[in-house]
């Protein structure tokens, strides 16, 4: 973990007078003194340095970004502010517009473009990434990377690394991260890749936080091993801890007894009673499922206990009516909206991604005003949204993932718990960890006492990334150097160094134990000779494999356009056949010049090593691991290039029209999108048919519902045939990917098809559309439509598409971007 640096003295001569005056002017805007880490960060920014700040949620990292904005405005320079999620971009746009005025602030999120030439532009990471790849830096002197711990996110981490790799070195970076344990490592990588950056680690929360375990009876326990032991012992004795009631049952199977523990969440009414008794409201109550949040709200309302008095209830009613007036497309009659509005009138809120954006914003505003005392929320509420509470309840210690249920990480816990404790209001914050079983007490103690996990790179080469690299650099050596600037390769190099150190120690110990010695050199030198010889053989095998793949790609290239063409694989290895030979000759010459090559004792010593099974196996494992770590990202790139070549989108190292489209897309499904667009599948469609078909290509939904789509397509023979062809294209892409050992998303589904066709046809009854043609949460459908609008606009901007297709795309976008969908764009 990076050490905490002592603050720079603001009045020292290290800063010029104008910089000190600017800091003083900025400080006067706030009624509170700055913390030491804030003072240090703004001093470094004022001095022209880049900074990366790791601090707990609610510690005041945004103030540092605000100083960067203040300095940019003072110097009439441009600043880009990037966030990983659209909702946070919208929130920042609203906040900064209030501070600086509409003419000074812009926003770019793909589906929304407002004032893009403004001095301050908020944008999602994908937008900024494509600007850097396309050379469209547009004079930004500063780049703020908010929530940059997202670099460890599986789906989004690559984009963060690409931004840092491609950001011009003259741009000053201001990176803001939640608490992570390897902020120093990240800073070292950025320093090598972009420019020097100062890490600032501030582990102290501005408001102290106490963690407590809460059992099913509402009894509170300190998060200590002794507490976990007592809770577990009571469960095995079959008695309640406080009253002696049984909390489990025994079942005899043959001669053995098995304890049956059924996980059951803490009753939220018990938790809220505890919080009220201790004056710990308002609270954010995290539950890791939307349906769980909704059920908890419904149960609380059934008990009929209001959390607001009559006067405050009138304030809530006024805010509700104002929202319904401002957003007339909201239907208060839908089941979920009725539940939400009933809850708000009682002082209880609901917040998850399926809720309409306007109602989520209303909940946030009422919570900030103290008119909502309890909010049942999913984990997404912990990400950047400004909603501090007096306390937080973690409703369970396990969450669903793509691979089933897993336990929370320390980072996830601290991100959610960080919402507890309002600066300047609460002397401390409280986080209750609700136990759904006795065994969960031990897990809770480990979480609370654990250290934050380090960020591990999630870098991967996708089709868009590969195409952008080809378009930007073309020369293979430049492409490989760019790929190897990634944080992933930086971490791989460190792993290789660790392996080599460990290997040297093991070699010495094993060689000594088995009596292997070399009369003229250390055994490690002999091992190095063996490794170089193995590397020479591996290089020969790699080139043989490459020749086979090149021939194969040449035979299959251009299938989609009915002609074969030469392969680009040999181009992107950067080696002609004469060069596959020169490299081998160079390696062979270097090997022959090692002293071991002519040593008469070498054969005997090598036989000894070979006979040492343990040493031989260890050396082979280490060699394979090092080779994989050294070449994994470059080999990923070559496999993706092979697929682009397979479909004829790359010729002799140059992108065709399809490849250029892939390079321009901000989409996880870019290869399939290009296949569809250039297959003729979209030709001759009406705007609503086009929108419906493209809706099958946006990101995979939470649940796929085929029944509505099948019923709709039954009477749409023309569109049904197109959907079938789309399925075949999807299966073909997936098959090709598997043959090239590439694992990238290929998504095709009909979940939104019926609703999209109906909305793009001019349907005005939103509630009926959702209920009859979708069946899920309104917020999910709106988000899907906004993604679809984004995709349509990206395709419309492509210069390689026929004019009639771009006109149809434009009409489809106009029909989609209206009513409640348009109202939600900037919320």
Top keywords for this entry?
single chain; 827 residues; alpha/beta; eight-stranded mixed beta sheet; seven-stranded mixed beta sheet; 33 helices; disordered N terminus
Topology summary:
Layout: H1 17-27, H2 36-46, E1 50-54, H3 61-74, E2 78-83, H4 86-100, E3 105-108, E4 113-114, E5 120-124, H5 125-133, E6 140-145, H6 157-166, E7 172-177, H7 183-193, E8 197-201, E9 209-214, E10 220-221, H8 225-237, E11 249-253, E12 256-260, H9 268-277, E13 283-286, H10 290-302, H11 310-326, H12 335-345, E14 348-351, H13 357-368, E15 374-377, E16 391-394, E17 398-401, E18 404-407, H14 410-417, E19 429-434, H15 440-449, H16 463-472, H17 476-483, H18 487-513, H19 523-556, H20 569-572, H21 580-592, H22 602-611, H23 613-646, E20 650-651, E21 654-655, H24 657-664, H25 670-677, H26 687-694, H27 707-713, H28 717-739, H29 753-760, H30 766-773, H31 778-796, H32 803-816, H33 819-823
Parallel strand pairs: 1-7, 1-8, 2-5, 2-6, 3-5, 6-7, 9-19, 13-15, 13-16, 14-15, 16-19
Antiparallel strand pairs: 3-4, 9-10, 11-12, 17-18, 20-21
Helix pairs in contact: 2-3, 5-6, 8-15, 10-12, 11-13, 16-24, 18-23, 19-21, 19-23, 24-25, 25-28, 26-29, 26-32, 29-30, 31-32
């Amino acid at each position: 973990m990076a050490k905490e640096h002592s603050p720079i003295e603001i009045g020292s001569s290290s800063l010029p007078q104008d910089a000190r005056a600017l800091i003083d002017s900025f400080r006067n805007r706030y009624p509170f003194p700055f913390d030491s880490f804030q003072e240090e960060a703004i001093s470094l920014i004022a001095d022209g340095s880049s900074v990366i700040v790791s601090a707990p949620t609610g510690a005041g990292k945004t103030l540092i970004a605000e100083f960067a904005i203040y300095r940019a405005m003072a110097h009439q320079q441009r600043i880009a502010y990037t966030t990983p999620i659209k909702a946070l971009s919208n929130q920042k746009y609203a906040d900064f517009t209030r501070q600086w005025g509409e003419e000074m602030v812009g926003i770019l999120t793909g589906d929304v473009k407002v004032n893009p030439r403004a001095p301050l532009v908020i944008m999602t990471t994908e937008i900024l990434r494509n600007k850097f790849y396309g050379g469209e830096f547009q004079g930004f002197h500063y780049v703020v990377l908010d929530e940059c711990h997202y670099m460890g996110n599986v789906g989004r981490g690559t984009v963060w690394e690409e931004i840092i790799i491609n950001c011009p070195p003259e741009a000053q970076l201001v990176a803001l991260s939640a608490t992570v344990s390897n902020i120093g490592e990240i800073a070292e990588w950025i320093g090598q890749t972009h420019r020097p950056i100062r890490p600032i680690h501030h582990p102290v929360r501005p408001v102290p936080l106490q963690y407590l375990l809460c059992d099913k009876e509402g009894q509170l326990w300190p998060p200590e091993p002794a507490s976990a032991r007592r809770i577990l012992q009571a469960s095995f004795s079959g008695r309640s801890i406080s009253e002696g009631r049984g909390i489990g049952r025994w079942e005899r199977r043959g001669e053995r007894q098995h304890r049956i523990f059924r996980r059951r969440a803490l009753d939220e009414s018990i938790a809220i009673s505890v919080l009220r008794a201790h004056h710990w409201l308002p609270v954010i109550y995290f539950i890791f499922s939307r349906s769980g949040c909704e059920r908890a709200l419904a149960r609380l309302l059934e008990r009929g206990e209001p959390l607001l008095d009559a006067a405050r209830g009138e304030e809530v009613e006024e805010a509700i009516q104002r929202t319904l007036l401002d957003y007339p497309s909201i239907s208060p009659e839908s089941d979920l909206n009725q539940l939400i509005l009933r809850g708000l009138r009682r002082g209880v809120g609901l917040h998850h991604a399926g809720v309409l954006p306007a109602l989520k914003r209303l909940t946030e505003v009422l919570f900030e005003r103290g008119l909502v005392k309890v909010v049942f929320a999913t984990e997404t509420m912990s990400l950047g949204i400004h909603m501090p509470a007096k306390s937080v309840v973690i409703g369970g210690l396990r969450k669903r993932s793509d691979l089933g249920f897993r336990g929370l990480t320390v980072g996830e816990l601290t991100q959610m718990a960080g919402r507890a404790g309002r600066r300047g209001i609460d002397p401390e914050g409280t986080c209750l960890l609700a136990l759904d079983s006795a065994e969960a007490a031990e897990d809770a103690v480990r979480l609370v006492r654990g250290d934050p996990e380090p960020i591990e790179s999630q870098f991967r080469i996708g089709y868009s990334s590969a195409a952008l690299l080809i378009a930007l650099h073309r020369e293979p050596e430049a492409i490989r150097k760019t790929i190897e600037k990634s944080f992933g390769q930086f971490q791989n190099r460190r792993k290789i160094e660790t392996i080599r150190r460990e290997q040297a120690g093991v070699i010495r110990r094993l060689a000594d134990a088995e009596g292997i010695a070399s009369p003229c050199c250390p055994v490690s030198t002999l091992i190095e000779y063996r490794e170089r010889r193995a590397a020479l053989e591996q290089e020969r095998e790699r080139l043989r494999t490459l020749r086979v793949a090149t021939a194969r790609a040449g035979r299959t290239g251009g299938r989609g356009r009915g002609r074969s063409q030469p392969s680009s694989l040999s181009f992107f290895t950067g080696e002609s056949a004469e060069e596959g030979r020169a490299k081998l000759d160079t390696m062979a010459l270097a090997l022959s010049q090692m002293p071991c090559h002519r040593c008469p004792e070498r054969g005997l010593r090598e036989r000894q090593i070979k006979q040492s099974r343990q040493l031989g196996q260890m050396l082979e494992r280490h060699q394979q691991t090092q080779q994989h770590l050294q070449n994994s990202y470059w080999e990923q790139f070559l496999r993706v290039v092979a697929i682009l070549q397979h479909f004829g989108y790359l010729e002799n190292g140059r992108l065709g029209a399809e490849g250029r489209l892939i390079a321009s897309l901000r989409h996880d499904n870019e290869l399939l999108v290009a296949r569809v667009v250039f297959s003729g599948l979209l030709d001759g469609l009406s705007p609503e048919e086009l929108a419906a078909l493209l809706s099958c290509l946006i990101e995979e939904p939470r649940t796929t519902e085929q029944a509505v789509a099948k019923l709709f397509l039954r009477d749409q023979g023309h569109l049904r045939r197109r959907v079938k062809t789309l399925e075949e294209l999807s299966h073909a892409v997936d098959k090709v990917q598997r043959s090239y050992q590439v694992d990238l998303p290929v998504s095709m589904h009909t979940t939104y098809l019926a609703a999209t066709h109906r909305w793009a046809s001019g349907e005005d009854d939103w509630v009926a559309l959702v209920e009859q043609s979708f069946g899920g949460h309104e917020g999910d459908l709106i988000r899907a439509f906004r993604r679809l609008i984004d995709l349509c606009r990206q395709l419309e901007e492509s210069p390689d598409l026929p004019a009639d297709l771009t006109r149809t795309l434009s009409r489809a976008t106009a029909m989609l971007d209206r009513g409640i969908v348009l109202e939600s764009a900037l919320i």
